Task: inverse folding
């Protein structure tokens, strides 16, 4: 029944191949290329829907589909296999669903771009890799996807490769991801070796989950094996999901086209780390140390990125830091054992953040055209050039606003349910921690503040665009607004699948919880991870978090609507603080000093000291030696016919002499 | 009494002289003639031995040597003409393209 | 008597050979060579191989020598323009002397071996030399004979291609 799972990643791959190979020379037509790219993904979405529905009605919740053997080395058997369980089913729905919408949007957004075919080819390839990552039934297939999405991310960030900043950002993303990938590999090796020492040589997720209990009590380097392995995996997750300390690539990744930011750097790829932890939840559950580290890193990232979001003026950068912060929330959820809540937030975040990014893309698109029309080179992404766009772009405004409400966590929008569940688990879970809860609550407050700052600066108040371009700002075409509306709708109602028990008046039950239980329940039960507390406490906390969100919104309203001079006064009062925050806490500069420059110096030493002197010296020395020897031998090569004949005769004489002497 | 060794000695002397000529002369045509001289000395050996052994094989071989010599004469002289046309000389010291 | 005749012819042959390698003009060398060929033809007659002597004169002294003389005339090589000898005269002399010593050593020390046939000088006279060679050539050595004909054909084509002005 589940033997056609491979079709899901196959369609995007097919699209990537068709557009990539034929797009430039043969297809050329933008509409056809866009239709192929979007259509392939839509097919994949339909297949995903079919299997999702099939899985809903199936009593067995874990299905594997092996299509071919990949490699067989000693006891290691690796297959090209796919695994469909509630977790991956949810992920493929999000990836293909949101992906289709963003492909549709891209047709409008990328209209008239030079490498239109290239863009769609990369985007399809990305979705293929992401689906491999999500569907892979073993860690190596997942790793193929993991590297594939990193590659596509690199290609798409560097899409405008003629711009130096885009190329640099792409390189930065790739290198930082590699650091994380190294951790992932180390974790995989540790796990493989540790399980192998119990006679279970496997990297299949299902078998890992079944045999994880063997590892309890194993020690390595003075720590338990699971702690070491999961910390390595978590390092991989921090790279891919832009957490402290490897988060700086994500804001720079905004150099790519906006739909790419929406798909890769908000909705899907960056959540790969969260998904990976979810996939290996049993290992993380076995190691409270790692889980605490995960929660702490997540919480610190959440608040750290949020502070930077305060002072940015580039609309996409605000959203990028918001993404980093929201990913921090997800890691907090994973760290406190609220796996379901983490995946829940991953899903809702995919809806509202994709919507926010696409909304910002719509604004940038309109601004860009207006500025271009008026022959100005003002920055189309700078919020200080916007303002008052509400009247000009009503659909974008409405969807952007809804998503802002959702991300801020106002009741009954999707973000409310998911964020609230995280907060509740952080507060009440056996693996939770009050300090982390406090940090996350502060981060939630900040989220509401900077998101509404962004909303107000863009859509409200006076229009601060250059007067020449002012009247050319128009609403975007339907291919752009349709995905916005759909995503805004999902951002509004998407949370209803996970209504918390405490406020479940209609007794519909927490659908998501029940759906994901086969994946997470086992480890939660085995290692006694649960949130315990009375319903009243939960409701009080809920009210509190809503109040916090409202406070953030109110604060933003006062500063950016009621009295627009306040931010300036505030900046003037704390110039140092503003400067530090505006410059992103100088993290990039610190990394440059600590790592980049010292690596560069090492590289220069290797080049000038080692390579030029030692390696080249040896090679040149050998060449010179051979040259010296052959300069002696070259006298025999006179090129004169008689000399060769003489040599031949002498050779004959010598041979005859040998014959005689014998 | 003339023995086969007499003939073979004459052939050996002619062969050595031919060798000397090939190695020392610069004129390609003279070298060519020296080669013919060497071939003929070999022919003499063949026929002397054929006669001594009362066997026909050696003489048949001489026929083949002659055929090869004829072919060689044709091709070799054609080569010389081609070389002369290119270099305006048939001096073997000018044939030095084998040196880089 | 016969021995004296042999030595006479041998001295003429060697002297003519000496002319070939010493003469300044290629035409003189060619004449020396013709002389050597005639001496060898006489040797062939003395060895009871009259047919070979005839062929020797026809092919060598006739055809090949004409070809050589023709080329000398064609290229107008009256005398050698530059030095007659290459630089390695001493080395070449040593090498050819070594060759001579080797060969002489073989002749003195070596023993003539091989199957003794039944073709005596009497047979040659009674049956005829041409018939004997013809039998050997067209029965036992038929395939090499055919190959030799192909070789000659190829040589003709090759000579034409090489000597043509433009290929």
Result:
């Amino acid at each position: 029944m589940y033997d056609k799972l491979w079709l899901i990643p196959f369609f995007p791959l097919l699209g990537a191949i068709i557009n990539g190979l034929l797009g430039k020379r043969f297809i050329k037509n933008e509409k056809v290329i866009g239709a192929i790219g979007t259509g392939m993904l839509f097919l994949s979405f339909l297949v995903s829907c079919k299997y999702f529905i099939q899985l809903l009605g199936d009593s067995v919740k874990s299905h594997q589909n092996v299509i071919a053997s990949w490699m067989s080395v000693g006891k290691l058997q690796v297959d090209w296999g796919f695994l469909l369980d509630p977790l991956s089913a949810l992920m493929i729905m999000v990836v293909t669903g949101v992906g289709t919408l963003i492909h549709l949007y891209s047709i409008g957004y990328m209209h008239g771009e030079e490498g239109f075919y290239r863009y769609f080819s990369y985007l399809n390839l990305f979705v293929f890799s992401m689906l491999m990552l999500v569907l892979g039934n073993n860690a190596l297939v997942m790793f193929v996807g993991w590297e594939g999405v990193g590659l596509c991310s690199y290609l798409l960030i560097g899409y405008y490769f003629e711009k130096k900043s885009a190329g640099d950002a792409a390189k930065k993303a790739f290198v930082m991801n590699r650091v994380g990938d190294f951790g992932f590999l180390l974790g995989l090796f540790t796990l493989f070796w540790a399980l192998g020492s119990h006679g279970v040589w496997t990297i299949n997720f299902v078998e890992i989950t079944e045999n994880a209990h063997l590892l309890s009590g194993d020690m390595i380097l003075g720590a338990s094996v699971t702690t070491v392995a999961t910390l390595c995996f978590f390092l991989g997750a921090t790279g891919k999901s832009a957490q402290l300390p490897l988060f700086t690539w994500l804001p720079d990744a905004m150099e790519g086209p906006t739909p790419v930011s929406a798909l890769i750097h908000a909705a899907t790829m960056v959540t790969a780390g969260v998904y990976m932890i979810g996939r290996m939840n049993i290992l993380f559950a076995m190691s409270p140390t790692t889980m605490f580290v995960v929660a702490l890193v997540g919480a610190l990232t959440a608040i750290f990125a949020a502070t930077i979001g305060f002072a940015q003026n580039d609309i996409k950068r605000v959203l990028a830091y918001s993404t980093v912060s929201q990913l921090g929330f997800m890691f907090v959820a994973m760290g406190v054992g609220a796996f379901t809540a983490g995946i829940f937030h991953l899903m809702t975040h995919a809806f509202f953040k994709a919507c926010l990014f696409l909304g910002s893309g719509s604004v940038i698109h309109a601004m860009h055209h207006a500025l271009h029309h008026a022959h100005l080179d003002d920055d189309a992404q700078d919020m200080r050039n916007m303002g008052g766009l509400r009247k000009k772009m009503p659909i974008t405004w409405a969807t952007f606003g809804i998503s802002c409400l959702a991300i801020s966590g106002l009741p009954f929008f999707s973000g409310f349910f998911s964020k609230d569940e995280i907060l509740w688990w952080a507060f009440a879970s056996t693996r939770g921690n009050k300090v982390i809860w406090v940090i996350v609550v502060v981060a939630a407050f900040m989220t509401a503040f900077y998101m509404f700052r962004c909303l107000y600066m863009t859509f409200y108040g006076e229009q601060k665009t250059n007067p020449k371009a002012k009247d050319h700002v128009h609403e975007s075409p339907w291919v752009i607004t349709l995905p916005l509306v759909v995503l805004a709708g999902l951002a509004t109602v998407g949370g209803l699948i996970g209504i918390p028990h405490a406020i479940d008046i209609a007794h519909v039950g927490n659908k998501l919880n029940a759906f994901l239980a086969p994946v997470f329940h086992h480890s939660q039960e085995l290692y006694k991870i649960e949130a315990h507390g009375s319903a009243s406490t939960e409701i009080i906390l809920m009210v509190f978090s809503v109040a916090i969100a409202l406070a953030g919104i109110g604060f933003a309203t006062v500063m950016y609507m009621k009295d627009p001079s306040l931010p300036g006064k505030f900046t003037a009062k704390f110039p140092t603080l503003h400067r530090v925050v505006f410059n992103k806490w100088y993290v990039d500069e610190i990394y440059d000093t600590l790592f980049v420059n010292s690596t560069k110096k090492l590289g220069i030493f290797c080049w000038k000291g080692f390579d030029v002197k030692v390696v080249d010296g040896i090679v040149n020395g050998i060449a010179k030696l051979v040259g010296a020897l052959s300069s002696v031998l070259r006298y025999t090569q006179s090129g004169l016919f008689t000399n060769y004949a003489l040599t031949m005769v002498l050779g004959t004489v010598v041979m005859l002499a040998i014959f005689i002497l014998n | 009494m003339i023995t086969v060794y007499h003939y073979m000695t004459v052939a050996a002397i002619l062969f050595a002289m031919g060798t000397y000529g090939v190695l020392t002369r610069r004129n390609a045509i003279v070298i060519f003639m020296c080669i013919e001289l060497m071939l003929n000395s070999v022919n003499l050996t063949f026929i002397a031995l054929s006669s001594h052994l009362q066997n026909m094989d050696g003489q048949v071989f001489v026929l083949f040597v002659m055929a090869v010599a004829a072919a060689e004469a044709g091709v070799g002289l054609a080569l010389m003409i081609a070389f002369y046309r290119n270099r305006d000389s048939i001096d073997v010291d000018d044939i030095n393209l084998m040196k880089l | 008597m016969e021995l004296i005749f042999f030595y006479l012819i041998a001295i003429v042959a060697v002297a003519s050979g000496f002319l070939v390698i010493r003469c300044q003009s290629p035409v003189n060398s060619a004449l020396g060579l013709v002389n050597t060929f005639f001496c060898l033809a006489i040797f062939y007659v003395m060895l009871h191989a009259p047919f070979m002597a005839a062929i020797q004169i026809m092919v060598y002294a006739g055809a090949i020598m004409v070809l050589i003389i023709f080329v000398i005339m064609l290229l107008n090589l009256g005398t050698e323009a530059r030095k007659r000898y290459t630089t390695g005269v001493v080395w070449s002399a040593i090498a050819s002397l070594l060759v001579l010593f080797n060969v002489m050593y073989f002749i003195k020390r070596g023993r003539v071996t091989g199957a003794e046939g039944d073709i005596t000088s009497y047979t040659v006279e009674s049956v005829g030399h041409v018939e004997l060679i013809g039998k050997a050539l067209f029965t036992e050595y038929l395939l090499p004979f055919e190959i030799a004909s192909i070789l000659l054909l190829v040589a003709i084509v090759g000579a034409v291609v090489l000597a043509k002005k433009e290929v």
Notes: The interface with chain C takes residues 640, 642-643, 646, 649-650, 652-653, 656-657, 660 of chain A (CB under 8 Å). The mean pLDDT of chain A is 84.
